UniProtKB/TrEMBL annotation:
The chain crosses the membrane at residues 29-49, 69-90, 139-161, 167-187, 246-270, 276-294. It comes from Streptomyces mobaraensis (Streptoverticillium mobaraense). The lineage of its organism: Bacteria, Bacillati, Actinomycetota, Actinomycetes, Kitasatosporales. Residues 344-579 form the ABC transporter domain. It holds the Pfam family ABC_tran. It comes from the Bacteria. PANTHER family: ATP-BINDING CASSETTE SUB-FAMILY B MEMBER 10, MITOCHONDRIAL (PTHR43394:SF1), ATP-DEPENDENT PERMEASE MDL1, MITOCHONDRIAL (PTHR43394). Its main location: membrane. Keywords: ATP-binding, Cell inner membrane, Cell membrane, Membrane, Nucleotide-binding, Transmembrane, Transmembrane helix, Transport. It is a multi-pass membrane protein. This is ABC transporter ATP-binding protein. It is found in: Cell inner membrane.
Length: 589
């Protein structure tokens, strides 16, 4: 089966943002419905109160005992408050569940993205989307949706009661509120636009901070703290300005609601006063009507706030969806690699990193039989690391054939292919955690014996003995407690524990002490006796011992052979051997 690396969203039509947003509510509909019912009960209690107040006023006016209506009023108030609190709790809980679900999906997606997709993204922006944008979904999807629904019900209920009290006054009220609703609707797209810009600025801030932290030592050594602080602070200020714009539009919308109610109050007071004077309306009805009018403030406010939060949610769900829709790699658990070393063959392979880039490989052809050590050499930019990237299928080549173990690389299930390879980067990263975590990272099921063996083989036993807690010593953020050479030995031990059928090793360029260097070289040679080793060589000591050397230049293979043979036959190799490779005298044999 060919794995194309296409994401599940590839080729699909983009769903509308509102559908995307509300689609996230579906799994929680039961809790939301219960919250909605409780919220409605709370709202109903609020609605009943003005009418009950009218009974209390009527009872007092008619000099009847008011204890009954007063007790009922208190009971309704307590029940209403309880229902509203229950609704708020359920909404809050569902909100957290929605955020958790969105974060889980997003994180799962991010780590399954293809390397080309991640090349185009900045880690800081990705982090913002996982942390900040998902948080925005919470309010948009729970409190605001349910409160808006409750707001609509309260509004309809209040209007029904108002209609029962006096139709003329209702018409006055609706006219004023209608005008204001129109104004609010005009403001909503502005809120959404400002919110999008605000979230983008938060993403920019994350990216700026990430850039500075990634190159923390360089920033310090370059005395660039002030400048970098300025860049991050500028992005933060942009986020603040755009946030203020959102706040401004939202406040204006809220103010227009209040104004509408005030205007309606004055109009109702004027029209209602004359109707009371003419005897067309009772005073108690006017009081109840006015109470209903004021009870509109809260649902109208809820509606405006809810709708503004939905605008924010639309922005957030759009940004989250952008990542979810990126092409991802097929999921699959890594099987244990098959037995024995594998051979590889590159046949007229062409590859470019992007349409606007020149070819990184321009007809690369070479073959590596199983077992033994093959060294890739060539000037910087020749395409050596690209050989590794294509073998790991971080990228797909555009033409030609790459075969691993005689099988086209595209026919390998990705997880199986990667399980067969051990990959040691030049600047081998060490993850924050203990030394043990790091060693077992690629093979969590390795036995303690296998771990001990790998540690001894890579000469890490001295380091383990020196560290205060041995294997359980935390090696800190990006392995700050380890030297460059130690980091690479950890990476080799990690790759060894995976029992790779093909080891891809990008040699460190920095100087190691002679003893460590010799030891590492011996380990790699020993390994080459049992597995296939492909090494990007930066040292003469490596190439002279290699079974074959592949000389690359400008995306092509220009010669293949042994050291002596190439020194005699290939000008570029002779030059490399005399300068670049031999420069590292400490590692020379
Ligand atoms: N992720 C990438 N995106 C775009 N272009 C890239 C990427 N990686 C490498 N390239 C380009 O592809 C070409 C080959 O790069 P590659 O890293 O394979 O060379 P190399 O021989 O390993 O060089 P070096 O010895 O300096 O590491 C170069 O021109 C490089 O600029």
């Amino acid at each position: 089966m060919r794995e194309t690396g296409e994401g599940p969203a590839a080729g699909r039509r983009e769903p509308a943002p509102l559908r995307l947003l509300f689609g996230r509510l579906r799994p929680h509909w039961r809790t939301l419905a219960l919250g909605g019912v409780l919220s409605l009960l709370g709202a109903a209690a609020g609605l009943a109160m003005p009418l009950m107040a009218k009974y209390v006023v009527d009872a007092l006016g008619a000099e009847r005992p008011a204890t009954g209506p007063l007790a009922a009023l208190s009971a309704v108030a307590v029940l209403g408050a309880g229902a509203s609190a229950g609704a708020a709790y359920l909404m809050g809980r569902t909100g957290e569940d929605i955020v958790l679900g969105a974060r889980r999906r997003l994180v799962g997606r991010v780590l399954r993205l293809g390397v080309p997709a991640v090349d185009r993204l900045t880690p800081g922006d990705l982090l913002t989307r996982v942390t900040s944008d998902t948080t925005l979904l919470r309010t948009a999807l729970t409190t605001s949706v349910v409160e808006s629904a409750a707001g609509v019900c309260t509004l309809v209920g209040a209007i029904a009661f108002m209609a029962a009290l006096d139709g003329v006054l209702l018409c006055v009220t609706l006219l004023v509120i209608g005008v204001v609703a129109g104004v609010s609707a005009l403001l909503m797209p502005r809120i959404q636009r400002a919110q999008r810009r605000a979230q983008e600025a938060v993403g920019e801030m994350g990216s700026a901070l990430d850039r500075a932290l990634q190159a923390f030592r360089t920033v310090k050594a370059s005395g660039a703290e002030e400048r970098e602080t300025g860049v991050v602070a500028e992005a933060a200020a942009r986020a603040r300005d755009r946030g203020v714009t959102v706040a401004g539009w939202t406040a204006l919308t809220g103010a227009s609601v209040l104004m509408a109610v005030q205007l309606a109050f004055l109009s109702v007071l004027a029209v209602g006063g004359t109707r009371v004077a003419s005897g067309a309306l009772e005073v108690s009805s006017l009081i109840a009507f006015l109470l209903y009018l004021f009870s509109l403030v809260s649902p109208l406010g809820q509606l405006v706030e809810g709708w503004a939060a939905v605008q924010q949610g639309l922005v957030a769900v759009g940004r989250v969806h952008e990542i979810e829709a990126l092409p991802g790699e097929p999921a699959g658990t890594a099987p244990t690699p098959g037995p024995g070393p594998v051979g590889i063959r590159f046949d007229d392979v062409a590859f470019r990193y992007g349409d606007d880039r020149g070819p990184a490989h321009d007809g690369v052809t070479f073959e590596v039989p199983p077992r033994g050590m093959t060294a890739l050499v060539g000037p910087s930019g020749a395409g050596k690391s690209t050989v590794f990237a294509l073998l790991e299928r971080f990228y797909d080549h555009q033409s030609g054939t790459i075969a691993v173990d005689g099988r086209d690389i595209r026919d390998w299930p990705l997880a199986e292919l990667r399980a067969s390879l051990g990959y040691v980067e030049q600047d081998a990263p060490v993850l924050a955690g203990t030394l043990r975590d790091n060693l077992l990272f690629a093979a969590p099921r390795a036995t303690p014996d296998e771990l001990r063996h790998a540690v001894a083989r890579t000469g890490l036993d001295e380091l383990v003995a020196r560290l205060p807690e041995g294997l359980d010593t935390p090696v800190g953020h990006r392995g700050t407690a380890l030297s460059g050479g130690e980091r690479q030995r950890v990476a080799i031990a990690r790759a060894l524990l995976r029992k790779p059928r093909l080891l891809l090793l990008d040699e460190v360029t920095s100087h190691l002490d002679a003893v460590s260097e010799q030891r590492l070289r011996d380990v790699v040679l020993e390994l080459a006796a049992e597995t296939t080793v492909l090494v990007i060589a930066h040292r003469l000591s490596t190439v002279v011992r290699a079974d074959r050397i592949v000389v690359m230049e400008a995306g092509r293979v220009r010669a293949v052979g042994g050291h002596e043979e190439l020194v005699g036959s290939d000008d570029l190799y002779r030059e490399l051997a005399a300068t670049q490779l031999a420069a590292d005298r400490s590692g020379a044999p």
